[in-house]
Design a protein that fits this description.
alpha/beta, TIM Barrel, 10 helices, binds 3-methyl-2-oxobutanoic acid
Length: 259
């Protein structure tokens, strides 16, 4: 029987795009699950839900608790959990923490940020049967300075190509390419056999991911690649305003909504 992970490589071969979104709780996960191939419990929850200035402040405990909630809403998609900063500093620590996440959240795999430097850690995890997703380009856990796309210079291009090959060789089943220059993301996608998932990269990637709260209009994100598919903030405001009026006029709860 095909596993959810092996289905991804078939999607790459068949050029059927891979749909990914983030979720931090059951209710959202349940709705996304009907349409997505991958649901990521991203450590972006640090900035989106907790207003942290960096994802570095996200703890393993937070990731586990949110993932447990997400698990309840995911039936068919592949569920991946981000390993937060400082939880995979060496291969032994990484294996211990990844096993804990897999056991407690029942997710299908984990995601780590980083390229060649992580080769040893990732190789050790995959050898120990931990399904790993890679993440290169902009890596928010280690970002310094401005949020600038990657692959501008020849040096950066070479580095990212080497990073992607190294991740593939270490056994990751897919790689997130965050803000990688168009042509370079095409080149990487054509070079590696595993699927690439773009975020702010290009249509040439095998799949795309967005932070769900961004695409639903629940955040004030001004990032170039964020496309708002709905302005949920506006819908919420309208609903709350109606509720307020109903309460003020004593028209809620009417007989229909009372015992
Ligand atoms: O944390 C996150 O949500 C992510 C994705 C946006 C790729 O890493």
């Amino acid at each position: 029987m095909l596993t959810k992970i092996s289905r991804l490589s078939i999607q790459k071969k068949n050029k059927s795009k891979i749909v990914c979104l983030t979720a931090y709780s059951k209710n959202i996960a349940e709705e996304i699950d009907k349409y997505a191939d991958i649901i990521l419990v991203g450590d972006s929850l640090g900035s989106v839900l907790y207003n942290y200035d960096t994802t570095r402040k996200v703890s393993l405990k937070m990731m586990i608790e949110h993932s447990k909630s997400v698990r309840k809403g995911v039936k068919k998609s592949l569920m991946i959990v981000d390993m937060p900063f400082n939880t995979y500093k060496n291969k032994f620590q990484a294996l211990k923490n990844c096993k804990k996440v897999l056991k407690e959240t029942k997710c299908d795999g984990i995601k780590l940020e980083g390229g060649r430097k992580l080769n040893g850690v990732i190789r050790y995890l995959t050898m120990n049967k931990i399904p790993v997703m890679g993440h290169i380009g902009i890596t928010p856990q280690t970002i310094r300075g401005k949020y600038r796309y990657k692959g501008k210079t020849n040096l950066e291009k070479k580095k990212l190509i080497k990073d992607s090959k190294s991740l593939e060789e270490a056994g990751v089943f897919a790689i997130v390419l965050e803000c990688v220059e168009r042509k370079l993301s095409k080149q990487i996608t054509e070079t590696v056999k595993i699927p690439t998932i773009g975020i702010g990269s290009s249509k040439f990637c095998d799949g795309q991911i967005l932070v769900t709260d961004d695409m639903l209009g629940l955040t004030e994100s001004k990032i170039k690649f964020v496309k708002k598919y709905i302005d949920l903030k506006k819908n919420i405001r309208q609903a709350v305003k109606k509720f307020k009026l109903d309460v003020k006029k004593s028209s809620y709860p009417s007989i229909k909504y009372s015992y």
